[in-house]
Write a structure and sequence with these properties.
The chain is built from 11 helices and 8 strands. The longest helix has 29 residues. Helix 7 runs parallel beside helix 9 and helix 9 packs across helix 11. The protein is globular. 44% of the residues lie in helices and 13% in strands. Strand 6 and strand 7 form a beta hairpin. A 4-stranded mixed beta sheet has the order 1-4-5-8, covered by helices on one side. It has a 4-stranded antiparallel beta sheet with strand order 2-3-7-6, with no helix packed on it. By secondary structure, the chain is of the alpha+beta class. Bound molecules: flavin-adenine dinucleotide (FAD).
């Protein structure tokens, strides 16, 4: 196979102690009660929790100290997010800012942008959303039509974004916009950091089929942002977004979204599970372990400064298949009614409704498979 190699996951420092410290912290600080918030927990908004997590040093871990970060190794951060997801912690408020906007600002942003935004991100107080998708540009991102024209006063933005997770509670949007008049496809695109309280921005909710308000439509009507809102190089938006997607696709969130259900299944099965349930638990554990090795290897490649697009896409594709299948496999085997009120039934209901979207967010299955096929020289 072309360009596909597994890397050893070798974080510095005492990882066992890091895990133990975080578990003790979670035992005291993780909100109890709402069991459904533990399913798909990286979509669960809880500003108090994010703030407390930031104060404890578990947000912005890889950012430099001079910007309020922890100067920790990316693989130490990996261990921390793995623990948070496995515990079903409500990390949705700061998730996007911590995972990709912060690192992208550090890599491509100006010094002014770093000083302005990174400390708030590291505190778990400044939230960001991703302005990529548009009605005519989802899988085909090169179809972006939202324009930003440079004027004497700054950039004037017109257009629309859609499916923007968390725009209604975010402070900033990192948007992909067309800055060069008459440009086509992936040329002429740039990234702008837009403060969402700028006049001319309208954020309208889209309610999903579970009845939740996670994503939005965002309209830009002659919105004026300063020249300094440009991130990185003008016209290099495509290259920068591709780097961002590598961070977005390979983390443990791509196979741990349904983890709370796995834990509830084990709890409900008790010490003497029926043979069919014991078999399912064993199968799920083995599959999850394999995905974990793949994801950790990809994280090691990213930490080494490489751009493992194929590996990240494989993690996303196989991870999504696993986390989407889990609720259906559990449903097929446990005796659980739609109206039951125990934890297993509540989690199962929530995930049967939410899981179809897992293979859409971050790039659809067909498109991800296309990237893998191209990367492996198969098309
Ligand atoms: C829960 C959730 C959260 C999201 N959050 C965000 C967000 O925060 N910010 C953001 O910008 N976007 C977000 N999205 C949008 C998501 O990234 C897009 O939905 C996704 O990229 C698909 O785009 P689309 O919906 O326009 O579908 P389309 O691109 O219209 O695709 C429709 C179908 O056609 C298939 N298809 C399209 N092109 C090809 C091709 N070349 N080859 C084969 N098949 C193809 C697709 O796989 C899909 O099945 C989110 C989506 C979900 C579900």
């Amino acid at each position: 196979m072309q360009g596909f190699a597994l890397y050893p996951f070798d974080p510095p420092g005492d990882i066992a102690a890091l895990r133990a410290d975080l578990r003790s912290w979670l035992a005291v600080n993780q909100p109890q009660g709402d069991v459904v918030a533990r399913a798909n927990c990286w979509a669960s908004f809880d500003a108090d929790f994010s703030h407390a997590l930031g104060a404890a040093g578990y947000v912005g871990m890889t950012l430099p100290k001079r910007y309020g970060g922890g100067d920790r190794h990316p693989l130490e951060r990996y261990v921390v997010i793995e623990e948070l997801l496995a515990a079903g912690a409500p990390v949705g408020a700061h998730w996007i800012a911590d995972r990709q906007t912060g690192p992208l600002i550090l890599r491509y942003g100006s010094e002014e942008q770093r000083q302005r935004y990174l400390p708030g991100i590291a505190k778990g107080e400044l939230y960001a959303c991703i302005g990529l998708s548009e009605p005519g540009a989802g899988s085909d991102l090169a179809g972006v039509r939202t324009t930003a024209r440079e004027t004497a006063e700054g950039w004037r933005i017109n257009g629309q974004k859609i499916w923007t997770t968390g725009a209604h509670f975010s402070h900033i949007m990192l948007a992909l916009v067309r800055t060069e008049e008459g440009s086509e496809r992936n040329a002429g695109l740039s990234q702008l950091l837009i403060d969402l309280d700028t006049p001319g921005i309208a954020i309208l909710p889209i309610i999903d089929m579970a009845g939740h308000h996670d994503f939005n439509e965002v309209f830009f009507d002659d919105v004026l942002v300063p020249h300094g809102a440009l991130v990185g190089e003008r016209g290099q938006g495509w290259k920068q977004v591709t780097a961002e997607l590598g961070l977005e696709r390979s983390g443990p969130e791509r196979y741990l979204s349904s983890h709370a259900l796995f834990v509830a299944l084990i709890d409900a099965a008790g010490p003497e599970p029926a043979p069919a349930i014991a078999t399912l638990i064993g199968e799920l554990a083995a599959e999850m372990w394999t995905l974990r090795q793949l994801s950790m290897s990809t994280a090691a490649k990213l930490a080494a400064g490489e751009d493992p697009m194929v590996e990240a896409s494989v993690v996303k594709e196989l991870g999504n298949a696993f986390e989407q299948d889990m609720p259906r496999r559990v449903q097929a085997i446990v005796d659980c009614g739609w109206g039951d009120e125990d934890d297993l039934a509540k989690l199962l209901r929530a995930l049967l409704i939410a899981s179809p979207s897992f293979s859409l967010r971050g790039g659809t299955r067909e498109v991800i498979r296309g990237i893998i096929a191209r990367g492996l020289g198969l098309r």
